[in-house]
Amino acid sequence: MTDTPRCSVIVVSYNSASYLPQCLSALERQQGVEADIHVVDNASSDGSADLVRRQFPRVRLIANLSNVGFASANNQILSPGTAEFYALVNPDTVPSPTALATCVRYLEGNPKAGVAATRLVHPDGDLQRSSHAFLGFRNLLGETFGVHRLLPVLRPLSSLYMPWFDHGRIAEVDWVDGAFLVARGEVVRAVGGLDPGFFMYGEEMDWCRRIRRAGWSIVFLPEPAVIHVGGASSGPIAGPMFVENLRGRLRFLSKHRSSLVVMAARATIAVSVLLRFAWREAQALGLSLMGRPVPEPLRLRLTSLSAAARWVLRGLPL
């Protein structure tokens, strides 16, 4: 009889108190694997750390005094660790009881696989696209102008989201979302943890790129599904997080693509942000002149684009 594998689970929390109970309860109920659960709290102001201390005494808590970002928080467990497997789990996920064991068992049986991740779904059961091709100029262009939604058959332009991808089969992919994934400990020690230069967004794409370059594969598993709310921590600070998403895109390109691609990407992002901001401002102004209130979705979009426009006008600093 084989020993039950152990997996060091990392949950990075930032103002996630409303989601942590479901997530941590689901992790404590995992079957077929010994889960050593860590919560790294990034100076939440909603009592997340106290909730963990009070309701989950078996969970190991690190309460940071400031928000060090997603990558650096994960590295607090990844960098010094000697675990056989590591799981990155977002606080707004609810993993099914066999999610960890399924990924771990796949990695045990496939020594060239470095990372395994299962299918993500919204709380209503609808699919979340979590497998992607690496970012380049063409699919950045497609994302910027919504080609993946309008003309998904144009694969070079829509490959960042791979709308054609079959989520019903096991497949090797370029990279997977960091909401729920399991990495081999050997891989972490060989390539290092997440790049702390990514505050939030883009770090898992960069990590998977480095892992693949080191000779391991990234594997998508269709079952079991993991519920993922998405944007739970970043929603209330949509403006700064939209900027971080764009900054993460540029940082990835700066690390892995040519200087010509980076120049073209910076120009594309700058023009797109400024045009979209001007258009949304015009929409809001038109509604105001007609005496009509600005709808909440438009207001939130304006908040994000306003923050991005200020970042562009500062020269798109990384």
Automatic annotation (TrEMBL):
Pfam families: Glycos_transf_2. One of its GO terms (molecular function) is transferase activity. The keyword Transferase applies. Keywords: Transferase. The keyword NAD does not apply. CDD domains: GT_2_like_c (cd04186). Residues 8-134 form the Glycosyltransferase 2-like domain. InterPro entries: Glyco_trans_2-like, Nucleotide-diphossugar_trans. This is Glycosyltransferase family 2 protein. It comes from Eiseniibacteriota bacterium.
